[in-house]
């Protein structure tokens, strides 16, 4: 990826940081974006400014340049300004990683706005990211690439159903997350058709449980262990998550997802667009009709 410039949202930690570091290692300069503040309905803390600065440091340790900017994917003007600043410093944009996402778990107190908050980040935030990037990607022509973070929840039937979530603690926020990821599959295909004449590729990846703050919260643990009362630990969650997969693994690491994204960002995938790729440790083949079916 030498000579490429990547625009990555949600880059403060987790999957976004993994994308930034690996792409920098392969020669890309990075425009790293994160909200750097909490969202009230989201029970786990969002990345901080210090987290985003740590990503910048890691990129620079790989010998590449990094422009790190505080911006909210829900606000298109902020994204546009951040992208323009990054391009001014780093040059022609070639790659977009629309990665920012939340899952505002209800935790026993569901609120209708939890659904909207999830949609605003997980769906509208992706669309905003793509919208501000398209005019700046078109000059790059063949070789430009947009990669969207989906979720295996978008592909497996009933992942967020009442049957799969007996405590209903995920509530409106979990539904907003799942619905957004489902819509993004169709969005990816339609946008890929629109951008194909310009040589710009659009693909979406669907990770299973990934070892980030989104996974490591009480709500997720309890969903997988409804048989346990009281606090549920990561050790309690591990065997249930491993059972969810066909391969003997409990979850992915962010770097695992970054390897797939690197391929889609590189010229090695120059003939791929509109694809929807699971990285799921085999849970789709284990549960073709949905969890437990």
Automatic annotation (TrEMBL):
UniProt keyword list: NAD, Oxidoreductase
Coiled coil: none
A GO MF term: oxidoreductase activity
Pfam families xrefs: adh_short_C2 (PF13561)
NCBIfam families in alphabetical order: SDR_subfam_1
PANTHER family, alphabetized: DEHYDROGENASES, SHORT CHAIN, ESTRADIOL 17-BETA-DEHYDROGENASE 8-RELATED
Family according to the record: Belongs to the short-chain dehydrogenases/reductases (SDR) family.
Name of the molecule in the record: SDR family mycofactocin-dependent oxidoreductase
């Amino acid at each position: 990826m030498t000579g490429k410039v990547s625009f990555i949202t949600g880059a403060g930690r987790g999957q976004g940081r993994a994308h930034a570091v690996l792409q920098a290692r392969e020669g890309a300069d990075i425009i790293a974006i994160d909200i750097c503040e909490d969202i009230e309905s989201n029970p786990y803390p969002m990345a901080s400014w210090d987290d985003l600065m740590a990503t910048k440091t890691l990129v620079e340790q790989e010998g590449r340049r990094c422009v790190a900017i505080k911006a909210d994917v829900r606000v298109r003007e902020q994204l546009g300004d951040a992208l323009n600043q990054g391009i001014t410093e780093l040059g022609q944009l070639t790659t977009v990683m629309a990665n920012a996402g939340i899952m505002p778990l209800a935790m026993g107190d569901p609120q209708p706005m939890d659904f909207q908050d999830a949609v605003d980040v997980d769906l509208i935030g992706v669309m905003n990211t793509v919208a501000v990037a398209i005019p700046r990607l078109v000059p790059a022509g063949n070789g430009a690439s947009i990669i969207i973070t989906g979720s295996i929840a978008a592909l497996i039937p009933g992942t967020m159903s009442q049957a799969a979530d007996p405590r209903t603690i995920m509530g409106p926020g979990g539904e907003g997350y799942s619905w957004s990821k489902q819509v993004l599959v169709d969005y990816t295909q339609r946008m890929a058709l629109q951008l194909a004449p310009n040589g710009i590729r659009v693909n979406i990846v669907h990770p299973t449980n990934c070892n980030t703050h989104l996974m490591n919260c009480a709500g997720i643990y309890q969903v997988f262990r409804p048989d346990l009362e009281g606090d549920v630990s990561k050790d309690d969650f591990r065997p249930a998550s491993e059972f969810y997969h066909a391969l003997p693994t409990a979850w992915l690491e962010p770097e695992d997802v970054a390897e797939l994204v690197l391929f889609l960002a590189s010229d090695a995938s120059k003939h791929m667009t509109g694809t929807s790729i699971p990285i799921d440790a085999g849970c789709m083949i284990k549960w073709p009709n949905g969890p437990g079916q």
